[in-house]
Amino acid sequence: MEESGPEADPATGTTRPSPTVPVPGAALSGPISHAIFRLARLHRMYAGQLLRRIGLHPGQELVMMHLWELGAQRQIDLVRLLDSDAATMTRTVRRLEQAGFVRRRPSPTDKRVSIIEPTAASQALREEVERVWSRLEDISTAGLSDEERTDALRALERLEQNLVRASTPPTPQAPTP
Predict the structure, then answer these.
(1) How far apart are CA 155 and CA 33, in angstroms?
(2) 141 closest CA partner among 43, 15, 21
(3) Degrees, nearest 5: CA angle 121-125-126
(4) Hey, CA dihedral for 90, 161, 56, 131, is it positive or negative?
(5) Alpha-carbon Rg of the chain, whole angstroms?
(6) What is the rounded CA–CA span in Å between residue 72 and residue 82?
């Protein structure tokens, strides 16, 4: 494992803190990928701390955000919206239902389909979720200028597009006559 201490940033001359997790030698060829791993881990951990205070687990707030915005949804549509899997969404919805934040009802047109809708009780939660996300954003981007925030968002969106493109199977081309 590569032991790393604080490094001087050549661009600014300031000292960058060392990574929160030791960088294994095998990861040295992927420093951005390892940084994404560390950032995602810390972001989820801190989000979890903030969300626990309002009775949610990470990911549940995203389900609620979509339900508040879009209204009642088929459970399968929530799976697609959140790029989840059916088993995870079933557990998430069950927990939200037990907490009184969603109600599950059968579809009027297909009894095999569950419709998930936010409850009136969840509306009070909405402001708290928005505060948590605002706080998480402030903590994550502390010390960044507006321009740096814009650049960071643009870079993250580009990284996401690269990964989506890489994970999408190529469309077969029709033979040309």
Answers:
(1) 13
(2) 43
(3) 115
(4) negative
(5) 21
(6) 15
